Amino acid sequence: MEQLINFLSTNMGMIYILILSVFLGIEVISHVPSVLHTPLMSGANAIHGVVIIGAIIVMGQAEPDNYLALTLGFLAVILGTLNVVGGFVVTDRMLELFKKKKKQ
Q: How far is CA 33 from the centre of its chain?
């Protein structure tokens, strides 16, 4: 319990920033019109590639016998890749809606 209190007191500034960013994110997202929600989310999923790079770095820096770090890094790479691919699939599908249909 003493370690938790020390951690909280040491990182109080970062905790405040985290809490404020959560409230700011909720406020911003709640004011996005429904029409823009899907394009913004697909773009956000594409940005998720940063997580893939971070996971690869974590896996590269992990000790060979640290199976927890390697497993979590591997899961982050897999889930991040799925998120990026999903973002591009949704974006591609949305762009198909704006193409003119060919006459048969």
A: 21
Domain ranges for the chain, please list them: 1-31, 34-104
pLDDT at position 86: 81
CA 89, CA 47: separation in Å to the nearest integer? 14
| Mean pLDDT on 3-31 | 91
Q: How far apart are CA 81 and CA 94, in angstroms?
A: 20
pTM higher than 0.70 for the full model?
no
Structure tokens at 77: 């790479």
Are 62 and 70 in contact, with CB atoms under 8 Å apart? yes
User: Exposed (0-12), middle (13-18) or buried (19+): which is 74, by Cβ within 10 Å?
Assistant: middle
Q: Give 26-65 pLDDT, tens digit per residue.
A: 898 788 777 776 677 766 776 778 888 988 998 899 899 9
Asked if 58 contacts 69 with a C-beta cutoff of 8 angstroms, the reply is: yes
3-state helix, strand, coil in the chain (%, to 5): 85, 0, 15
